[in-house]
Amino acid sequence: MEDTHPFERFIDFYFELGLNYKDIKTLLCSRHSFHISERHLKRVLSTRGHTRHKAYSDLAVLVEFIDNQLQYSGQLHGYRWMYTKCREHGLRVRKEDVHLVLKELDLRGVALRQARRFRRRNYFSKGPNFIWHMDSYDKLKPYGICINGSIDGFSRKIIWLNAYTTNSNPKVIGGYYIEAVQRLKGCPRVVRGDLGTENGHVRGFQRFLVPVAPNDTLESYLEGASTANQRIEYWWRFLRSQCLEFWLSLFADIRDNGYFDGGFLDKNLLQFCCMGLIQDELDDTAQVWNAHSIRPSTNINIPSGRPNVMYTLPELYGTRDFLCPTEEEHVEMCKTEWPFLNSQVREYVLAFSVSTYSPRTHGSTYPPRTRARTRDMYNWNTCIRDDVTGPEFLLPSPLNLTVSNML
């Protein structure tokens, strides 16, 4: 088709996009400084053989195109999006035809879109201890407090929930796992963790304690993106709303008022003053969660009830406990890689904090057990910190110190 006017190729382009006359006229005026009346525009389109209601593509071609699209992400498209896609690929079709073809070829997808529901994969776990989901919570990490937890995929019972000075040390995370295995006298069939070096010891322990047969397609340890670890990711949202939002707000206030600069000493001050309280609240939240009632889900594969009951009485839900018994000597071999945390986990060390904040002087207990006492202790120690100068005050890593050897 020969152009008689330099703007006619733009008219062809906008018409093929499916724009109406008013939009074409506006674009020609605003983008190309070409003023044309709607009547003249229709005349130009007619002269160039463009028409809205004639020369539609063959219906068989439309069906074949939509069928090919439905094999991939096209199954997510509504008829309006599919209509635009057809026009982009050079098909001249009517929206009503696209709608009818989609209803025939993708009836279930049309029903889901009409109900405004996402098409999701349904979560499934065979029973308690079939899979544990583990992850770290990093929202408090800028303040020196690192949380790690694990949840049973079937019952949603919290297996462990610990606060410590790090959640990136694989030995520490491995210690949480071994402690749970010793307490339960067994390990799960599968552990699901995130990609990262912090889970390296758990990965090794799990594969050592639960060897997989050559013909078994399911590994004993699975890893992937954190966002896909849905069980524990959902629980972090619950934990924040019911527990950690208080601490996030408190620490943000301390930071905004100039009492926290993110340095080594300030982080250790918060660990010393708040770690015990946070661990107590984590324990209390986990206990309440394990005893509360989970409401029924539309997913028939997910049971409802109390996590403690679902975990200990799986026969009520037509399943069994998938706990894999472990040999004591095998667990002892794993423990050689486990740092001795139990005697240190609540002794959040800072030498000058212990030595300067005397319980006899301030009428307090160590560590502080209330919010007011925590704030008093932190404010007292920040005053001491501000008076301390010189590189000789720098301490070695707090993980290598205990309260007992500093007094």
From TrEMBL:
Domain Integrase core: 125-299
InterPro entries: Integrase_dom_put
UniProt-listed Pfam families: rva_4
PANTHER family documented for this protein: CLR5 DOMAIN-CONTAINING PROTEIN, EXPRESSED PROTEIN
Name of the featured protein: Integrase core domain-containing protein
